[in-house]
Write a structure and sequence with these properties.
Blueprint lengths: L2 E6 L2 E6 L4 E3 L5 H20 L9 H16 L1
Antiparallel strand pairs: 1-2, 2-3
């Protein structure tokens, strides 16, 4: 699952999969970076607990590509 951004009634957020939403202040790069770091930390903790994804699934490969683009440009 990729880390993605979204917006809800509380404002913009970063989220890994369907886990906790980490809200950040719109337009604030430091706030966005902090939210992304928290989502990555959560992702790492989930994988450390034994979670495995099916990386051979075509949609997983697509999601990995999107995540790579997100990391590089956002």
């Amino acid at each position: 699952m990729p880390i993605h951004t979204g917006r809800d009634s509380k404002g913009p957020f970063v989220q890994w999969g369907h886990q906790k939403k980490y809200h950040y202040k719109a337009g604030d790069k430091k706030s966005l970076a902090a939210a992304k770091a928290r989502a990555k930390k959560q992702m790492s903790a989930i994988f450390a607990s034994g979670y495995h994804e099916n990386v051979e699934h075509p949609l997983k490969k697509f999601n990995l590509l999107i995540e790579e683009i997100f990391e590089k440009y956002i």
